[in-house]
Every structure is written in C-alpha cells, then in structure tokens.
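Forum: Protein Structure Q&A
Topic: Joint prediction for protein chains with partners

I've read a bunch of threads here and the consensus seems to be that you should model interacting components together rather than docking separate models afterwards. I'd like to see that in practice. Below is the full input, 626 residues plus whatever partners are listed. Could one of the regulars post the assembled result?
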Amino acid sequence: MALHRLSFRLRQMILQERHVRTLRTSGCVQQQEAVAESEPEPFSVFRTQESDPACHSEKHVGQFYTVPPAHVRIVFPYGLPRRYIEQVKTFNEACLMVRQPALEVISYLKKTDFSKPALRYVFYGVRGSGKSLSLCHTVHFCYTQGWLVLHIPDALRWVKDCTELLPSSYNTSRFDQPLQAVEWLRNFRTTNEQFLSKIKIKQRYVWTKREFTEEGSLLGELVDQGISRVKSSSDVVGALMKELRLQSGQPESNFRLAVAVNSVNALWGKSNIMKEDRSAVDPEELTLIHNLRKLMNNDWTGGAIITTVSQTGSVLIPKSAYLPQELLGKKGFDTMDPFVPVSVPNYSEKEFESCYLYYMDRHWLQHPQSLTEDGKKELIFLSNRNPTMLERICSSL
Amino acid sequence: MAASLTGLLKPWTPRVFLVRWSRYNPYYLEPEFRKEVYSKSEAELTAEEKEQRELKVIRPIKAATHGVNSSVFYDPVVSKFTNMMMKHGEKTLARQIMTQTLETLKRKQVEKYHKASEEQKEEIECNPYAIFHQALDNCKPVVGLANIQKGGKNYQVPVPLTDSRRRFLAMKWMITECRENKHRRTHMYEKLSQELMAAYMKEGNVIKKKFELHKMAEANRAYAHYRWW
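Posted by a regular:
Agreed with the consensus. Here's the joint model:
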C-alpha cells in the first residue's frame, strides 16, 4: 500500500511539469504560493491551491478546490446535498470541482451592471449532473465578494410534506409554514451576520396587537422577531424579502443581493400538501412561495438571481423531463422569461480523470480492482460519467 | 456423485433445452463466466484446459445463474451473502442493503483514517471487502455437532464440517443475529456493519456463538467415536 502511494506520488510529480508553469502565471496563486507549500508536497493534477472562487479560471477546470472550513459552516448551514455532506464529514474536507457552467455564471456575475434589472440564470441538466453543487460554487463566490446571499437550498421542502400548516394572519386565503420559515431564518442569520446590523427597515410592520417593528430598526431585529415568534415567522420572511428587494438597487444601500434558489420549478409546480378536506394546496396559496415568486421577477436592480431546475424530488413530473421549459411549466416560464440558461453536462474525460484521482487520493476507492485500467473502464461504462452515479458506485467499492 | 458418473455417461444430446431449471443431467458442463479464462492464448493452456475446451465443443452447458457476471468487481462470497439475505425474491432490496453495508463500513473506517495520526494510519483497514471476508472467516466454526441416535438416546457428536457448510453457518448466524437481536428501529445495513466490525475485531455475539459451539463440541469429545463417516 505504501509502495503504491509512493509510485503514485512520483507519477503525479512527473505529470506536473506542464502544470507548474501554467499555475505560476496566474496572479492570485502567486500570493498563495508565497504563503508556502513546502517542496516535498507535490502539486496535484486534480487539486488546486486556489480557494477563492473569484480567481478560478479555465485553467482550473476539472480541478478540486477546498472550501475553507470556516466558510462551510457559515455559507452552507443547510445548503449542500445530503450525500455531499456525508462526503465532507468522511473526507474531513469540503472540496468542490471547478466546472465550466459555474465559471460561466461567475464571469457574468463579475461583469454585472448593477443599475440594470437583475438577470436570471438557470442551471439545467440531466439528473445528477451537478446542478446543486454548481449553484453552491456560485453562492460561495457571492459570499467571498461580500454580497448578501439569500440562499433557498431546496424550494421543494416548502412545497412537500408539510406537517404544520397555519392559516395566514395577513391574508386569510393563504397558508403559513412556521417550521420551514423559522429554519430558513436561522440559516439566513448565520450566513449574513454582517449585514444584519447595517441594513435598516424602511416600513413599519405590525405583527399582532402588541408587537410591531418600527421604521428604521435594524434587519437583525426583524429576523430575531421571526425566530422568537414562530407564528408570524412566514410573514417575517415575506417582509424581509420585500425590504431587501426595495433597498437593493438604491444608491444609498451598500450591498448587492444574490438570490440563489435550488429547484425553482417547485414554485410553479404542484404541491404535496393537502388541506383538511383532502384537496390539494396550490403553491400560490402558501405565503413563503407567494413572496418568493415576487423576488423572482426582474423588477429590482442591484443583484442577480441564480437558480436550478431539477426533476429529482419534484411532484408529479416525469423522470425524462430535464429542460427548463418542461420543468417550469407555462406559468413559470412566462415569469422567468427572459433568463440565461446554463447547461450542466456530465463529466468530460478530463473531469472524470480528476474525480477518479481525487477518490484515489482520499482512499475512497478501496477495491483492488477499481485501481486498475479495467476497473476504470468499467466505472466509466456503469456511470456514463454522471457525477452522482459515479459517487454512488464508488461508495460501495 | 455426478463427477463419478460423468465417465460412464454415453454421448447424449438433449431433446428439449432446459432454461431456468437447476437440476441438470450430469452430462451438462458448468458455465465459465470469468473473462480472464477466455483471454488466454493457445500456448498458455495446460493439457487439462485443452481437454476442457474440446469437451465444451461437444457437450451442452448449464445456464448461468442470475447473480453471476464477468465484472471485475464480482465477488462470489458477497453474492452468496446477498442471496442469503434476500426475502421473497427481492434481490434489488438485498443488493441495496449489501452496498449500503459496505459503504457504511468504508465510511467509518475512512473517517477514522483521515483523523488519525501517521502511525495509526497504517493499522486502520479501510477496505470493506477485506473487513467483510476477515469477519466471516473469524465467525466460521471449526467443528460442528451432529445428532446421532445410539441405543435409544440422542447424542450431540462433534463432527468435521465441509468448507461450504462452515461458510453457510457463519453467514446464517450473522444474518439471524442482525435480524433478531438488535434494536427494532435501526436499519439492517447499520446493524450488519456494526456486527461485521465487531466480528472483525473478534468480539460480538456471533463470535460468542461460535465459541459456545466449540465448547459444546469439546465437552462432547467422548462421543466422537459414535461417528461412522
């Protein structure tokens, strides 16, 4: 085993000759290198030392970058797919692959004109092709650039399997979801700690006869109000979204708003929840969804909307549907139109190589046959280079 | 018995070709599903193998069973264990449990590996297949007990076991232990992974059962001569 590792490292060092020159020319990496990677630690084909998404470029496509542990806890308190969280726990590090779709959206975000209405980006692709993680990469970029991130990690959770449904206090024809709203507010507070004490609310909100939030109080107080008073938490979420939307384009506000929604097709699809008389609830009748739909319109400035559409987990949609038109439906497409569609394909050959080497490095491929050429060919055949399928197959090998 | 009769069989072609039937005329040959056997060139074959190839041209061959494949990752022991775990013919569920068990074993070990210091890393076994095989080997009993009636009384007589019987007993004990003696609300793959890990470390209920069987056999050593085979 030790001998294998030694020969593997030698192989990597020989292969690195070409990559060393290209890496050294990039400006951001030079600063990182000054911090010192000591000589015995070889560069890897599949890893990059660049942990700042702003400095990622085409040279880094296919390579894994490590999300700093502090960022993982803050930016993604509930943002990552379940199997990825287990992988992070097992490997003791959070590594994301730099891929072309995420790089494209990041480059557009760098060039956004904040005086124009917000542009909508939609990641789409077959099941398991890496849309959620591309979204997480983009969210990490927005966080490192100091934007205010409104991350809804899974819109489907708001539309399926809701145990507690209260009639809304604001509008009697709508329904509240207190548990989901409180959970989301908590995560929002963790991610955007720094903005809570800087942004002031412009309107007076009355929650009950005795509770109200004055004009000019801080955003943090609004969020705390929502977390402590569970009954009005959905309305707090709505108020928060409205405030941020109104304030984001104004000249006096000093923040940029990034709205990141995973599985945005849940907003216009069908829902799983039933009313007491066993009739289905339309997503329009849920407060959280109603407010989120207002955010999806491009009538505000000073930020961007990044979303994914996914069939996995969506209610009553055929498995073969993966294009935005099919998944959003007529209403959704009319609302989201015009948007920038970004296709997320399966791994290319280079990316597959990179993933394979990463798993080998982390000692995840343990079957002796999986390290041979025949085993690799079989993995390519079985998974069709689909990231999720590859992960599932490798997990039992 | 089939092997001894094979020499006496006359050349015979079946009138009706059998599919999905496990009782074959001893004339039928076993199927060869491993890829490496077919990639050998003419020069590498020994005399026996050349004879086998001649036979295969003439004689009919049994149909291969369902779980058998020529994948590089195929393991007959794992396949047998999955079949034994299967209930009501639900092979997909049994296979899913098996893959989840191997994954859980690997996850726990790899997590320990990444958090351990350099000296401890050498001792941690991360390969779930190695753990699985070693655990089953640790559970295999060496002698078994047979019920022999002599002079109106039934005696438990210690008896040598064939390899297949030992493997079967180890797997059977592992599965029954996990099904019955664990907490109701845990998943089968969690129970299995805990029990396999314990058996790998030579602790746990299945190892205890094996030792109890050995003790009974040792206690009944006096009746060993009652065995006539």
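The mean pLDDT of chain A is 82.
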